[in-house]
Write a structure and sequence with these properties.
Elements lengths: L1 E4 L1 H11 L6 E12 L3 E8 L6 E7 L2 E6 L9 E8 L4 E8 L2
Parallel strand pairs: 1-6, 2-5
Antiparallel strand pairs: 2-3, 4-5, 6-7
């Protein structure tokens, strides 16, 4: 499991969520009618301090993390969050880790 946040994606989060340096962004699986890595689930985001972080990465002064109980969602995969200038939005990209 790995997580990479591009500089552009971090800037998008700061702008869209009104974040300052030192803020936290939690990534977690949530029920969804769409699909992410697993049918019926997608990644949710919350701006809250970690409780039991198991994976975290800092980009542009923001700490992005996943809690221990949420790692099942990423098992066997790496996550890259990138900014799409054309869409002015972020994109989640998953890569199978063998």
């Amino acid at each position: 499991m790995s997580m990479v946040i591009s500089q552009g994606a971090a800037s998008w989060f700061k702008r869209e969520l009104g974040l300052q340096e030192g803020a936290y962004v939690r990534l977690f699986p949530r029920y969804s009618s769409g699909g992410g890595l697993h049918p019926g689930f997608s990644l949710g985001i919350a701006t809250e301090a970690p409780g039991r972080p198991a994976m975290e990465v800092e980009q542009a002064g923001i700490v992005f993390y996943m809690e221990e109980q949420d790692l099942w969602y990423m098992e066997g995969y790496g996550l890259s969050i990138e900014y799409s200038e054309a869409e002015d939005d972020i994109e989640y990209k998953y890569e199978a880790k063998i």
